[in-house]
Amino acid sequence: MYNIIFCAVLTFHIYIYIKDRSVKLSHKELIDLLQRAYSAEKAAAFAYQGHAGSVRDKIQKAAIRQIEEDEWNHRREVLQIMNQYNIPVSKWYEFRFYVIGKAISFSCYIIGWFMPFYFAGSLESGNVCEYFRMKQFFNELGIKEHDTILYEMGIKEKEHEVYFLSMIKNNKLLPFFEKVFKWGKKKSANNIDMEALEPVETSDIYCKRK
What we know:
Blueprint: H1 2-21, H2 28-54, H3 58-84, H4 91-107, H5 114-140, H6 147-168, H7 174-181
């Protein structure tokens, strides 16, 4: 009996010790970026459910479903980081991006083949920099333990962008959409060149804030 009581008391004190020693981030922009990315990944995953369901080609359908799974994986990875620093999930972002994701998912069935691919590529182009900015923000705080996972998630988003662009690069609608929405063969929201990829250690050149 005494051993049980002793173990329970010891476990409680260890829990309190670990909890008190957990690092809390004093970086509002980073915290908001993590919360927003966590919820936005769900919106993206929902959108790709509709996108995959709307295409007829089996190869395209499989590729989009894999991208959806990548987004769920990113959401899990971001949550692990948030939990490490006791960052709560934003209920507002969760609601907002749930609605956005479901709306986009539904729209994929009615806006034709080209636009879901185009806007998915444009969205992924911007998502790339979210993860590189997180890395930069953490580094500003002297934290480097997340460098590799954030780099990998950023590169994965770039791979998604490259895939979606490859599907529409010869479509006659692309020049018009690129001119209006500022993304396409000549324009991107990030400066990553997959043919000359920088390693983690020198990746700070990507997505630098002006």
